[in-house]
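Sync notes, pocket subgroup
Present: LS, DG
LS reminded everyone that the earlier model was apo-only. Rerun requested with oxidized coenzyme A included. Inputs:
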Amino acid sequence: MALVEIKVPDIGDFDNVGVIEVLVKVGDTIKVEQSLITVESDKASMEIPSSQAGVVRELKVALGDKISEGSTILLLETADAAQTEAVSAPAAPVAEQKAPEVQAVPAAAAPVAVASAAASTIDLVVPDIGDFQDVAVIELLVKVGDTVTEEQSLFTVESDKASMEIPSPAAGTITALTLKLGDKVNAGDVVGQMTVQGAAAVPAAAPVAAAPAPASVAAPAATPAPVAQDAAPVPAAAAPTATAAVAAAPAHNPTVPPSGQLPHASPSVRKFARELGVPLNEVRGTGRKGRITQEDVMAFTKSVMAGAVQTLAQQAVAAKAAPAAGGGAGLDLLPWPKVDFAKFGAVERKELSRIKKISGANLHRNWVMIPHVTNNDVADITELEEFRLQINAEQAKAKSDVKVTMLAFVIKAVVAALKKFPEFNASLDGDTLVYKQYYHIGFAADTPNGLVVPVLKDADKKGILQISQEMSDLARKARDGKLGAADMQGGCFSISSLGGIGGTHFTPIINAPEVAILGLSRSSRQPVWNEDKEKFVPRLVLPLSLSYDHRVIDGAAAARFNAYLGALLADYRRILL
Ligand code: CAO
């Protein structure tokens, strides 16, 4: 057994391209050549296969990541260590295995090169398309009479491993197209003619492949070598919202359909579907071999719209029939205010980090979809803090690296509270409550790129020192951007501690599909009334903010949970009871 890094091989001119599909997940057993991810540039998509067989142990890429040759895709546990070593060497063997596909990437040449032109009419010639030979035309994207822009895709060709869109070398009008679906084409084939706007744009007798028209040479679209394997078709490109959902609900990965046939579609159709937010795996393909066409995507959109209109109509009827009950469907909000900030002073624009985009979408969904209520309480941690300081002094004396913070004690106390109030350790699944019999506690970690929630597994089986050690390892990994998907999955309940920073109370947002989250603020010395002696005494008080999903948890239960937690923290011996 050995753990190897599977890297992105030589993918031609693809550089810094976005990951649009993750086709495997941690724990999957994969074969050599099995597709791992799909990347996409603005004109093409390509599947990246594995150069090794084994079990996926850690994913190093996520939807939306930008990758290039040499980027690590995942860590794979292989059976053969010797073979592994060779493969894990950066890119080389992987590239060799991928060679046939990679060579399909056309050189930086023009897609449809311009051949001889009479006045402003030019021939459309299939450019150098690398190793693609006798490839079938699977899609005609224009027809005679169409006006096209430079770089607009004209038709799609497909080999057994890849599909590629061939763009126009210039802006103009298609005057002849000799192609039909199923035709086989090769570099140099003349497939039609077009008139171009102004002869100057197209040199009179440009040789077919050797010297493409300047406009074409500059065309960025010349690079792609899209791959859509017929043998192992891929899931639909996830819409941006789906992307966010992946990281937000780590236990579930919607980019990997559980089973079944996955959709075939060319890059332009995938892009079109993505722009409309259409999940391709729900679209029925009517093209050759069930391939999804642009018309299929449009038909799907129409049917969804028709369904939505019908539902709205039904709701309108229902609302009219029972006005007192109120509508309530949809938020019906004003559009986001659009302000030209620069009118009022200098501004700088910075795109949100990937983590912020993903967590933002999740926080938004959770905030909107969960009826949150926050119960605020305090715990007297005077004695516990003394004990913590004593433990840390002992740790320092023993030259141990482990430092115990209040959070470790709170995690352990939360586990005891979850055992006493099991509906806090549950998730809603439709009308069913799923009670978990394990205790994996997530904790929000602040990183330079945004908020992440690593999960400390089986907290009920660990002591305070082990919890402290693991938490510090996970927090370090989070800050270094090294958390794997598995590190953030399986959480039952989350804790967000701002105690190291400040604040009195706050309203944490529940991390769906969990049903509650505990916020810790900074502890402080407070005068507490001592009823026996009838005087104020200084006590260390920790603020507890418990947000709960009111569909699952009643306010009284939340108050009891928080009070019980407070009692445990005030007298930690009670955990033993
Ligand atoms: N009251 C007072 N002091 C506290 C405290 C509390 N409730 N909790 C921690 N501290 C102290 C610690 O004892 C430590 O003090 P010293 O440096 O003197 O030893 C200091 O604050 C820093 O603690 P820490 O933050 O390093 O350790 P932690 O175990 O408390 O927290 C982690 C770890 C990863 C949760 C934390 O570093 C972090 O990232 N917090 C931010 C979480 C966040 O962003 N939440 C908001 C999410 S919603 O937007």
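DG: The two ends are 45 Å apart (CA to CA).
LS: Residues 371-576 form a domain with the Chloramphenicol Acetyltransferase fold (CATH 3.30.559.10).
Action: DG to write up.
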